[in-house]
Specification:
By secondary structure, this protein is of the alpha/beta class. It has 14 helices and twelve strands. The strands form two sheets. Strands 9-8-7-6-10-11-12 form a seven-stranded mixed beta sheet, sandwiched between helices. The termini are far apart. The relative contact order is 0.14.
Length: 423
């Protein structure tokens, strides 16, 4: 495919996006001003600057964050992101979205998020371990199985969680596996956790397709972001009869209108570090992928990828958000006008936190489930939650994102009013 000139608009600040989305939904609820203001802002924010000894003997100082948005429904839950573009406002937004995600699917959690400003690809395994253990030590004043439970996110993985769990356990003097989720199976992880977010995306796509009157069988799907979420969603959607026509990662994308073998693409990425160069494909950019001819678009990269500038050129009939916040409020308005259905992040990619909840419960009880039990229970919650959001959208005559936020905000507000304002 020949490259075309694209005008790239500046990415909208994620925190401003999250607040705009909140205010749109909150306008539909009879919230008292003080309650609305309380729900809009994080409960606590921690910024840490910490030294790490590098392989060459030098010392680098890194900046990290941990933000708790809400503790009304229970302990805070949320991933830890390693990325060079991490900002405090991004972590604030992701923590807020986690609050609504947990609430809309009925989990007893509040939302949190963490991050370190770092490109993990530039660090050795030993440097990553040193960074992770020091960061875990810095945020351990907030972490506990009863208070704040981290998980993997962009740039982190089960090994990262193992280092965090071990660091916390060394400080406590005994093994505490339930302090993180997304761990390797050998130290108390859950069956089905690695695939959980991508599996949830495929379930949300199926349910949204049914609601939108379109069959997934034979649908053409483009996936932006071929990491843990996007790659799993791609091959599970292929198993449902979809044709995966495009995939991308941070190095660029590939396109074949006749279809790709998503599992072969994943093996290619594992061998070469990128999907780029997969045989029989045309090269496309991440921006171009969003505008390719397809029926279903699965943005699974970072926030703000679909905005008011490129939304009019989106050709997909259905967008299923694998990432958190990939569509700006301006783009939502354009897509609504064009009758493009969006399965929003707080429902569509909730499979990960649902199975994280299962892992946490299993860890606390030291009683473990089979992968079949995990997947069945996750699907039950996903289907139920999507149906509830769909009914709210029809009753309130709003899009699915606003409907999901209305349900989530209302649940947290009700819990807050029931608990009362301390003291």
């Amino acid at each position: 495919m020949a490259a075309t000139a694209l005008v790239i608009t500046p990415r909208e600040d994620p925190w401003e996006m999250a607040l705009r989305q909140f205010n749109i939904a909150a306008d539909s609820l009879p919230l008292k001003r003080g309650i609305r203001e309380f729900l809009a802002y994080p409960k606590r924010e921690l910024t840490v600057n910490f030294p790490v000894k590098m392989d060459d003997g030098s010392v680098r100082v890194f900046t990290g964050y941990r933000v708790h948005h809400s503790t009304v429904l229970g302990p805070t839950k949320g991933g830890i992101r390693y990325h060079p573009d991490v900002t405090l406002n991004e972590i604030r937004a992701l923590a807020m979205w986690m609050s609504w995600k947990c609430a809309v699917v009925g989990l007893p959690y509040g939302g949190a998020k963490g991050g370190v400003i770092v490109n993990p690809k530039e660090l050795s395994r030993e440097e990553l371990e040193h960074l992770t253990r020091r960061y875990a030590t810095e945020i351990s004043i907030l972490m506990s199985p009863e208070g704040d439970i981290p998980a993997p996110d962009v740039g982190t993985n089960p090994q990262t969680m193992a280092w965090i769990m071990d660091t916390y356990s060394m400080h406590r003097g005994h093994s505490t596996p339930s302090v993180v989720t997304g761990k390797p199976l050998s130290i108390g992880g859950s069956q089905g956790r690695v695939e959980a977010t991508g599996r949830g995306v495929s379930i949300a796509a199926r349910e949204a397709g049914l609601a939108h009157g379109m069959s997934l069988a034979g649908s053409k799907v483009a996936v932006q972001g071929y990491g843990n979420v996007g790659s799993v969603a791609a091959y599970l959607l292929a198993d449902l009869g979809c044709t995966i026509v495009a995939a991308s990662d941070s190095s660029g994308g590939i396109y074949n209108a006749k279809g790709l073998d998503p599992r072969a693409v994943l093996k290619h990425k594992e061998r070469h570090g990128s999907v780029s160069g997969f045989p029989g494909t045309d090269r496309v950019t991440n921006e171009e992928l969003l505008e390719l001819p397809c029926d279903v678009l699965v943005p699974s990269a970072l926030e703000g990828q679909i905005n008011g500038e490129n939304a009019p050129r989106i050709k997909a009939k259905l967008i299923v958000e694998g990432a958190n916040g990939p569509i700006t409020p301006d783009a939502d308005a354009v897509l609504d006008e064009r009758k493009v259905m969006v399965a929003p992040d707080i429902v569509a990619n909730a499979g990960g936190v649902i199975v994280s909840y299962f892992e946490w419960v299993q860890g606390l009880q030291q009683f473990f489930w089979t992968e079949e039990e995990v997947n069945q229970n996750m699907e039950r919650i996903m289907v139920r939650s999507f149906g509830q959001v769909m009914r709210t959208a029809q009753e309130k005559k709003v899009n699915l994102r606003t409907a999901g936020l209305i349900r989530a905000i209302d649940r947290v507000a009700e819990a807050l009013m029931t608990r009362g304002i301390y003291p």
